[in-house]
Amino acid sequence: MRELKHQHKFIIFSELFQFIKNSIVPLIIFLISIGSKIPPKYGGDYTEGIVIIAFFVIVSALAIFKWKRNVYNVQEDGMYMKYGIFEIHERTVPFSQVHTADISSSLIQRLFNVCKLEIDTAGGDAKSEISIFLSKQEALRIKSIIFKVEKNENQDEIIEEKNIKKLTSSLKDLFVMATFSTRILAGFFIILAFYSKIDDILPKKFKEKAQGYTDNIIKGVKGVNIIKYVVTLIIIMLFVSWVISIGLTIIKYYKFTVIREDDNIKLSYGLFNKKEVTIPLKRIQSLIIVEGVIKKPLGYFSLNVETIGYGKDKGESTMICPIAKKIVLDKFFVDILPEMNITYNLEKSPRKALKGFIVFRLVPELIVMFLVGYFAPYGYYIFLLLPILIILHYIRFSDNGLYCGDEFIVMRYRKLARETVIIQKECIQSIEKTQNLFQKNKAIAKCRVTIAGDILGSSYTVGYMNEDFIKEHVEVRK
């Protein structure tokens, strides 16, 4: 006989909020449509109040009823769920199929000592197989059963144990990450968009006074000074975007900590919305070392992993190190992921492929340049970018590399950032070699490796490699 337990009562407030959020617009429309149709003698003057009270009574009753019907049971081999109001669902998830069990808690949830436990398995969709509200202690207990972690009396201080190894991103690292983030440009364009809407928001009298003040300032100002003012305005907007980027980055990745405990990698981060994630080591299929255009010269990198049943939260969940100095990489492999601490020498793209590599990428860019140079005033200045593009393509070509060992394949390529991918061979679904007519004459080819995934899997490609190397070391030994 199963001993069924209820979720934390916080779910009542959560469901109540969801009901109100989803129903507020229809409710307002309903109030507007019936308010004037009921005569005063039948209570027309109190229609709005009666409807609102009835609405809150009904949604509160539904939320409480849902909490009462939403129960679970945890055993050593799996988790049973029973839920639903009008239609009852029963689900059993074997722990042997669980790939991740994530704990997250917002600022409000932490005040009530409650968190959300999300359990995912392979083949799941964007929604977690199990998502429930529990006390922090109960969520940690269930995670310890799933991943067979030994019980610790003080789970919150588990990172202090001597047999636990961890890495933490400092505020300085997050500051650097925010400084070179694309969020700065995104914030810049958001500010521009907001600025363009000011004309529709401000009162007419205020706009007239502001226009007169601006005209008095600009009157008599030379063209050079106007350019200075515009440049100053752009700098101010970029500075505001930079400040916003720093704030968002610190809020999201505050105290980002990576912990290796037994056969699991644990992540914890977040200021207001704190997340705790556990990745079983056996689920990791590949490790990606990302070195940005600006971050690489400064000695910084970030780390991502690909796993089955994970990475559903807008891609952010695959990141196991948002940013760190290059010297930390060796420590990461020794302390956190020694199973992927391998030595390799990459086979580089042959020099005979350089000309084709650059020409193939320059053709579409030259077409755009000719169109801009022909139609745009002073557009011919765009050809000054040509040497820069050639250098960038040469760097991309130089970064190409491929290695195949007994247990791992290593691929290196550059899009904008340089990425080095370490792939476990047992996780590979397919290896594909492709080449066009020109590449066939030069005996070069493109190597594409696909690993298992929730739907289509993930693929990595290195182009313009020696065809004989792919045949001998990759295709034959896969």
TrEMBL record:
Listed InterPro entries: UCP026631, YdbS-like_PH
UniProt cross-references to PANTHER family, sorted A to Z: UPF0699 TRANSMEMBRANE PROTEIN YDBS (PTHR34473), UPF0699 TRANSMEMBRANE PROTEIN YDBT (PTHR34473:SF2)
Any Pfam family the entry gives: bPH_2
Protein name, per record: PH domain-containing protein
Residues that span the membrane, as ranges: 12-34, 46-65, 174-195, 226-251, 378-395
Positions in coiled-coil regions: none
Limits of the YdbS-like PH domain: 67-145, 253-315, 406-455
Organism (species): Clostridium frigoris
Key words of the record: Membrane, Transmembrane, Transmembrane helix
